[in-house]
Write a structure and sequence with these properties.
79 residues, alpha+beta, three-stranded mixed β-sheet, two-stranded antiparallel sheet, 19% strand, AB_hydrolase_fold, CarbesteraseB, signal, Carboxylesterase type B domain-containing protein
């Protein structure tokens, strides 16, 4: 295999390994490599329940119903 083809194959493989995305029943979650250990992927600020707003304020938690892409690269604010 010529050198340029090897490079393209290597870059494609690296992009799938370091993309940081995983698929779940709540959608795709995007993380990032840890700053102190690049071999470890961090997934920060993943919601586990719907925000406790209005009628949900003092009710038991309800499951998070996201189906899109969750950017889990930073800690999120707790409402």
């Amino acid at each position: 295999m010529p050198w340029p083809h090897k490079f393209v194959v290597l870059m494609m493989a690296a992009s799938t390994v370091f993309a940081g995305g995983i698929s779940t029943s709540s959608g795709e979650i995007i993380g990032h490599p840890a700053s102190t250990r690049p071999a470890v992927m961090e997934y920060l600020g993943i919601p586990f329940a719907r925000p406790p707003i209005d009628d949900l304020r003092f009710a038991p938690p309800e499951p998070f119903d996201g189906q899109g892409i969750i950017k889990a690269t930073d800690f999120s604010v707790t409402p």
